[in-house]
Amino acid sequence: MRPVARINASRLFSTAATRRAAQPFFAQEPSAPSVQTAIPGPKNQAAAKDLLEVFDIRSLNLLADYEKSIGNYIVDLDGNTYLDVYAQIASIPVGYNNPHLAAAATSPEMVRALIDRPALGNFPSADWSHILRTGLLKAAPKGMNQVFTALAGSDANETAYKAAFMYRRQQERGGSEVDFTEEEMQSVMVNQGPGSPQMSVLSFKSGFHGRLFGSLSTTRSKPIHKLDIPAFDWPAAPFPSLKYPLEEHAKENAEEEQRCLQETERIIKEFHNPVAAVVVEPIQSEGGDNHASPAFFQGLRDITKRNNVLFIVDEVQTGVGATGKLWAHDHWNLSTPPDMVTFSKKAQAAGYYYNNPALRPNKPYRQFNTWLGDPARAILFRAIYEEIQSKNLVENTALTGDYLYNGLETLAKKYPQAIQNLRGKGQGTFIAWDSPNRDEFLAKAKTVGVNIGGSGVSAVRLRPMLIFQKHHADLLLEKLETLISA
């Protein structure tokens, strides 16, 4: 791509001396990326060939040396060191080889959780309440005081859906005290009503909520995720398609959001399988980093309340500080909290938060599996949250995000064809833009020492860790400018 006018990076961004003067969270981090071989290098190629014999590697990005990776930097088998702004698909929160997490991982408490992993529903450890109260519940979204732990993001959403369906049927029966009828118990064994009712969860076009059966039926991002898999007959509402910059299209965007809200309420009222819950991402991540305003989500909350439909916010990718708030829905100033908030990724644990006791099923074993999550992961999350609190990492992400966005905005003005529809202003480091040659751009980024990801068809998405600082942003901006102007 030919440059319009090459940016003088030494003037626009901080100099190397300024970067060295910054106070890093990881003192042992490299000062900059380093690429020593072709990408992939010979050792990576040989290891990939060996792995292919026993494991499907068609989605392989790179084979990493996690012993040498540190902080914001991931190292491959050939010694190439990349500034990692993809962070294991947004799931590494506080850096590779974080010493505080290492201490938690080698504690006697962790050893017990790993070697005597309990079936939590039947045999929780005596300290399970303490582990939850000092970690997951300490970080709970406002208005929520209970948690159901799960194994992964898809599982978190599936169990939240189950809770919504059971809650809805309990309401229809007249309360949790009313028992099941004989007809319900007989019909459910042949997958028929009334025991197996025709209900639904409404999701949004381009949304992503996981790859298990129930969660996959609410995923609408790419056909490849869903092909050949039987799906539930559940509805999809339009998600706002906003125009950027937002401040230049305020009227059009408000009209678009209102159109989507009206259509959502129409579907809830008219869809042939009654809607028990609405699930939405604060930012549609896999679907292309699609945003909506707080007013849109406030409208959704109002719609769900007046139609007696539960409101589930999927914070699997946005949660735990990535948007400059601990939970992305904190940006919305809702009149009442969501009914459930699902989480995973940066939490290194999974599940959903809630408050209403009626969301607990009326009988045991209805919301159940052997593990019900993993106490080892809950212990790790507690250490992650301690790091976040002690180092003010949510505030750091908000400030670094503003700084990075401003730098990208400057690049976008110089190279409007290369950086299109820049989005994520005021959303921490949860930033994206559209690239006309996205896949080629992602591949070339590695050649200058940047590991970066994509979403949707054309979006480049940034998912740096919470320890990403301004000197890292300077490096990233310089590398991006090099790529764009090459």
Question: Care to give the gist of this entry?
Answer:
The chain is α/β, with parallel strands linked by helices and 486 residues long. It contains 17 helices and 14 strands.
Task: Provide an overview of this structure.
About 35% of the residues lie in helices and about 10% in strands. With about 475 residues, it is of the alpha/beta class. It has 2 domains: about 10-95 and about 390-485, Aspartate Aminotransferase, domain 1; about 110-390, Type I PLP-dependent aspartate aminotransferase-like (Major domain) (Aspartate Aminotransferase, domain 2). The strands form 3 sheets. Strands 3-9-8-7-6-4-5 form a 7-stranded mixed sheet, with helices on both faces. Strand 10 (about 420-425) and strand 11 form a beta hairpin. The longest helix has 22 residues, at about 395-415. The termini are close together.
